[in-house]
Design brief:
The chain has about 375 residues and is α/β, with parallel strands linked by helices. The chain is about 35% helix and about 20% strand. The chain has eleven helices and eleven strands. β3 (about 175-185) and β4 form a beta hairpin.
């Protein structure tokens, strides 16, 4: 170690009353040692050439080298060994990544690390069958190499408010799910409002006379539970929809998060319109098309599952649906309100939209909820 200079005691010239201070002059920093080794050398030729150049630099007085010289033989032996070590390092490094792993042990270990089990996805009985498949058909290994990372890019856990709505909406019995967060006095709680298949309720028991499921629908639900590793529905026990959805929630929700399932509250709307027709079109045709656009069928504005809970109903959307039909010249809204509103009987001013609360779902002409009335002006009778 370098010896430091002895400290010297000094005082400031301006104020001699202050105590002095010790001053030590540090030595200059040690110069950096140069590195002339090329760390990109990886193969036999690059190692051999580097050692030949270093040998020439060390002995510049020697002008001639023969392949049989002992120095060159040693250089080639060392270059060959360095080439083997470099190849081994590359292979070991490649096994550290899923995309470059070649050994089956490393490949399956990385897939298991991301919780992707290709033998289960292929419905094979054991890992040995999967290994034999890879040996007979190597391209199958490359397929799983791509499917493994792709499987973890899909959000499966329910963490955020949107996750609960999106994941529950994927269940066959759920048409739409809407999540809202509120303070219950002690902690934040999530309320998941669900609109169910055929407008059923959460506590309805499946398998009863009013809530009968077809065999195809039962199989669809069973496949969904098997795909998400949920408990198989016990159809003989007539489970409620809440029980099936609670199993789904318990497995994938965030730990410690308070979640409550809630039935959506149906809100009936009354929509009364007058449609002015072109004289060339029949009234029956226009009436059928208007009810199709604003009805509950596959293309209808109020079809089950189209509207989300808490979604306001805009007057402009109704106009857009009707005015795009062939043969419609104009449209006039006569009544547009909630059925539980005082504006239903005497509505002097048509609102631009109807407010729907977060736990409510707008319905019209759907099993007694809401009324759709269409009056026609003009056109041809028939």
């Amino acid at each position: 170690m370098a010896k430091l200079q002895d400290p010297s005691l000094q005082w400031e010239e301006i104020n001699q009353g202050d105590p002095g201070y010790r001053k030590v002059t540090l030595p200059e920093p040690v110069p950096k040692i140069g590195d002339d080794f090329d760390w990109h050398q990886r193969d036999f030729e690059s190692f051999r050439l580097a050692m030949l150049l270093d040998l020439q630099n060390r002995f510049p007085e020697r002008k001639r080298w023969n392949e049989g010289d002992l120095e060159l033989v040693l250089i080639e032996i060392l270059a060959a060994q360095l080439d083997l070590l470099s190849d081994m390092a590359d292979r070991v490094s490649a096994e550290s990544y899923l995309l470059t792993a070649r050994r089956l042990e490393s490949f399956l270990a990385w897939l298991s690390f991301i919780n992707y089990k290709p033998w289960e996805e292929r419905q094979l009985e054991s890992v040995e069958q999967l290994i034999k498949l890879y040996q007979d058909e190597p391209h199958q290994m490359e397929i799983d190499r791509r499917l493994g990372p792709a499987s973890i890019r899909r959000q499966q856990r329910m963490v955020s408010s949107d996750d609960y709505g999106n994941q529950l909406s994927a269940h066959p019995l759920v048409l739409r799910a809407y999540t809202r967060q509120h303070w219950n006095g002690s902690w934040l709680e999530l309320n998941v409002v669900v609109a169910l298949f055929k407008d059923w309720r959460l506590d309805d028991r499946l398998g009863t006379n009013e809530r009968t499921l077809s065999n195809k629908m039962k199989q669809h639900i069973s496949n969904f539970h098997a795909q998400w590793k949920l408990r198989e529905p016990q159809w003989q026990a007539n489970p409620t929809i809440r029980e099936l959805l609670s199993d789904y929630l318990r497995r994938y929700r965030m730990a410690g998060q308070s979640v409550a399932l809630q039935d959506v509250i149906p809100v009936g709307l009354i929509v009364e319109i007058t449609v002015f027709m072109d004289e060339r079109y029949f009234q029956s045709e226009i009436l059928r098309e208007v009810k199709r656009e604003l009805g509950t069928g596959p293309d209808g504005f109020f079809r089950p599952g189209r509207l989300a809970a808490g979604q306001d109903i805009q007057l402009s959307d109704i106009y857009q649906r009707v005015m795009k039909l062939d043969g419609v010249v104009d449209m006039q809204m006569r009544r547009f309100a909630r059925m539980d509103s005082s504006l239903v009987s005497n509505q002097s001013e048509i609102p631009q939209f109807i407010v729907i609360d977060p736990d409510e779902l707008a319905m019209c002409n759907n099993k007694g909820a809401g009324v759709l009335q269409v009056h026609l002006q003009g056109g041809r009778r028939g």
